[in-house]
Design a protein that fits this description.
The chain contains eleven helices and eight strands. The chain has 373 residues and is of the alpha/beta class. It has a single domain, classed as Arginase, Chain A (3-Layer(aba) Sandwich). The protein starts with a strand and ends in a 6-residue tail after the last helix.
């Protein structure tokens, strides 16, 4: 029986970055409530675990002291000398808000609790839906991310002597995590994402393969807009399982952003909930232990439904498609899985297939030989 932990506290979902901001933490509460309505935390194999705030020393395992101090000051309503230096501005992607330090540190702490549970053998898989903030850099915010919980959690695992593969299926390239380990061979980073030609952060070309000791350990598979389930799953299977099997990680850290869905308002990929769930099914077999993090997702019901499906698969539960009555009446959702999918013409499908084929061929040419494949 697989043992799982879901690390969550309502505090993680109550803040507002800005009234018109697309990143809405309330999606976390919607996800928790949907899982709770299915009884996800009642069985012996699933534990609901509270987070703890990350200590400043833990934040400093990746972020600079100056930047952490700036976030702390802005959290209290105090202005550092130049907030723009840290890519924080009232009208930009990364607006300051009251309590930002505390809630961001709690999100990092949730990922550390999850990492500790998995590394310590208490569970086989742990999921922090508030995590996966993969864009944050050592000295500045980026892409709605203030602290990079993924990097900090991976650093913790490396300090335990563990070998880590990081797999990122967010529609946006996992640039912050890639950059953190770009010269290291102790972490294999793999990102499948919409091509940076069309989407923030503009990076993640298949030619970005690492440097120095890390050359060959950064893997990028950019995808064209309108890539649907069939092409996405083919590309994933061609690249991810063989590379992870060759790398032989002790543990997989997975960023499970739900913004590759065809209804997401910020991206142009065309996954359905079934395609997303199939990727999760594939991930379950890649390593004996698994740390799962949230990430992007800007259509509220899609995020809740996708992560509910994901956690169900982590605990080997296929939830009924009919959403429990209490939740359905509260939020108006009837079905867990998509009832319809995107309408893609043959030209769009063919273009996506050609783009994916080119990327897969490039990854195999550049990286497979280094891994004995």
């Amino acid at each position: 029986m697989r043992r799982a932990a879901f690390v969550y506290d309502r505090v993680l979902s109550q803040h507002v970055l800005r009234q018109d901001h697309p990143f809405r933490p309330s999606r976390l509460q919607y996800t928790y409530e949907l899982l709770d309505s299915y009884g996800a935390f009642q069985g012996p194999s699933s534990a609901l675990v509270p987070p703890r705030p990350a200590q400043e020393a833990e934040l400093l395992s990746f972020h600079t002291k100056d930047y952490v101090a700036a976030v702390k000051s802005l959290s209290r309503g105090q202005q550092p000398a130049n907030p723009a230096r840290y890519n924080i501005s009232t009208h930009g992607d990364n607006p300051p808000y009251e309590g930002m330090y505390e809630v961001s540190a709690l999100g990092v702490g949730a990922s550390l609790v999850a990492a500790e549970l998995v590394a310590g053998g208490q569970v086989d898989v742990a999921f922090n839906i508030a995590g996966g903030l993969h864009h944050a850099a050592p000295n500045h915010a980026s892409g709605f991310c203030f602290f990079n919980d993924a990097v900090i959690a991976i650093n913790h695992l490396l300090n335990q002597g563990l070998r880590v593969a990081y797999i990122d299926i967010d529609a946006h390239h996992g640039d912050g995590v890639q950059d953190a380990f770009y010269s290291s061979d102790r972490v294999l980073t793999i990102s499948l994402h919409e091509s940076g030609r069309y989407l923030f952060p503009g990076s993640g070309d298949s030619g970005e393969v690492g440097t120095e000791a890390g050359q060959g350990y950064a893997v990028n598979l950019p995808l064209a807009p309108y890539t649907g389930d069939e092409v996405y799953l083919w590309a994933f299977r061609e690249i991810v399982p063989p590379l992870v099997a060759s790398f032989k990680p002790d543990l997989v850290v997975a960023q499970l952003g739900a913004d590759a869905h065809y209804r997401d308002p910020l991206t142009h990929l065309m996954l359905t909930t079934e395609g997303y769930a199939q990727v999760i099914r594939e991930m379950r077999h890649l390593a004996p232990r698994w740390l799962a993090l949230g990430g992007g997702g800007y259509q509220m019901d899609v995020v809740a439904r996708s992560w509910t499906l994901a956690y169900g698969l982590m605990i080997e539960q296929e939830w009924p498609d009919e959403i429990p009555v209490e939740y359905s009446e509260r939020y108006g959702l009837k079905r867990l899985r998509d009832e319809t999918g995107p309408q893609l013409d043959s030209a769009a499908r063919d273009q996506a297939q050609r783009f994916a084929q080119k990327g897969v061929d490039e990854v195999k040419r550049l990286l497979f030989p280094r891994h004995g494949l």
